[in-house]
Amino acid sequence: MNLKNGPVSDEERGPLMLSYTPVNDAEVLLENQRKGCR
């Protein structure tokens, strides 16, 4: 994955990059934990 230095617009990053924010990572981990507990 090529990461640019400095500010990058959401359009340049795209949906895949948006999914790698800390908040989304935490939400994904919580979802995985809920599914694993079932």
Which features does this protein show?
about 40 residues, mainly alpha, 2 helices, about 65% helix, rod-shaped
* DSSP strand content: under 5%
| Mean pLDDT figure | 65
Task: Indicate the percent of residues in helices.
Answer: 55-70%
Q: What is the string of helix and strand elements?
A: HH
Using only CA atoms, what is the Rg?
13 Å
Q: Major sheet, described briefly?
A: none
Number of strands: 0
Number of helical runs? 2
Structural class: mainly alpha
N-to-C span: 34 Å
Quaternary structure classification: single chain
Structure report:
The chain has 2 helices and no strands. It is mostly helical and 38 residues long. The relative contact order is 0.10.
Summarize the structure in short.
The protein has 38 residues and is mainly α. It contains two helices and no strands.
Map the helices and strands.
Layout: H1 10-18, H2 22-37
